[in-house]
Amino acid sequence: MKKSVIGAAIAASMMLGTPALAQSFNYDVTWEPVEPYGGLTSPDGPQYRGGAVKGTYVSTDNDGTVANGTVKCVGTRQPPGVFAIHLACTAQDQQGTYSLAYGCNWIGKPGPETPLGCVGAMEATDGQFKGTRGGLTMYWYSDEKSVGTGQWYVAP
Fold first, then answer.
1. Inter-residue contact 23 to 62 (CB < 8 Å)
2. pTM score above 0.70
3. What angle do CA 41, 101, 30 make, to 5 degrees?
4. Is residue 83 within 8 Å of 105, Cβ to Cβ?
5. What is the mean pLDDT of the chain?
6. Who has greater pLDDT, 13 or 115?
7. Taking a C-beta distance cutoff of 8 angstroms, is the pair 81, 105 a contact?
8. What DSSP assignment string belongs to 10-22?
9. Phi, then psi, of 44 in degrees rounded to 5
10. What is the dihedral of CA 141, 146, 151, 152, to 10 degrees?
């Protein structure tokens, strides 16, 4: 009997120490026009051109909770490599404030009308998820619209 209790206690402690999925969500962003900054010319197109953009979003958690918020991002085009564009963003809604980082690539020939596919990470800086991090995807399919998914992870 004692071995069963010890085994059960060990199994329970292993489950509590394992990272668990906290919450997943979908989001829809409406963007204002991008304000471009600088950049250098090259035979491959603009390099290091930056921009700033603001938007509003609606996110829906997998439990049905809906949040409305704002997002601000700055981005920079990169030379050929893993990602064509990097974005650093801050988002805020009634659930908290979040730092976001994305790496994006063109879905097709690079250009202002070509959609972007992005992957990223997030960190809650306050609110109900403070101290947690997660992963993101984003499909920026027009000048004004993008959609994406996210998943919060609870650290051990």
1. yes
2. yes
3. 85
4. yes
5. 84
6. 115
7. no
8. HHHHHHHHS-EEE
9. -90, 5
10. 140
